[in-house]
Amino acid sequence: MKLLYVCSHNRCRSILSEAVTNTLAGDILIARSAGSQPEGEVHPMSLKYLEKAGYPTEGLKSQSWNDFEDFEPDIVITVCDSAAGEVCPTYFASSIKFHWGLADPSKLKVNADEQEEAFLACIDEIVERVQTLRGIIEEVQDKGDLRKVLLTLEASK
Questions:
Q1: Helices 112-139 and 44-52 meet at what angle, rounded to 10?
Q2: Residue 110 to residues 21, 116, 117: CA-CA distances in angstroms?
């Protein structure tokens, strides 16, 4: 099953989500990330704290959702509120779409210790959500049923 994480700039939360998903669920999910208005480079702290938490960072890059027209994701998850409000390209029309709404640790104006804490907390939240998503996908095989379960889960948050 293919999953695309979308964030406006594709430099922090979507990148973190891609790396965590491919590590924790890479046997059942192929995760990629993209932005509606990609920054063109991954935030250096994203790479630093992924590595610190033990996740590989090789191959992670900031790219446009237009680069994924042929990817045909089964699931599209927006991770920032501004991306959730945007209209997805028509080539994602058959994808299951829902929103995670993660706080952006790269935007905080705090000291280094607090920034590290914020990045690691975001990674921990992604880990929990990926583990839940993995369990649901393993349990629900039909795509129509999966859509219902995921949308019900999103609505309950």
A1: 70
A2: 28, 10, 10
Phi, psi of 154 (to 5 degrees): -65, -45
For 78-130, give the DSSP string. E-SHHHHTSPPPGGGTTSEEEE-----GGG----HHHHHHHHHHHHHHHHHHH
Binned at pLDDT 50, 70 and 90, residue 38 comes out as very high
- Encoded tokens for 29: 């999910």
Class of 2-155 per CATH?
Answer: alpha beta
Domain ranges of the chain: 2-155
**CB within 8 Å of 34: residues ≥ 6 apart:** 4, 5, 6, 10, 14, 63, 64, 65, 67, 68
What integer pLDDT is reported at residue 94 of this predicted model?
87
Tell me, what's the pLDDT at 85?
62
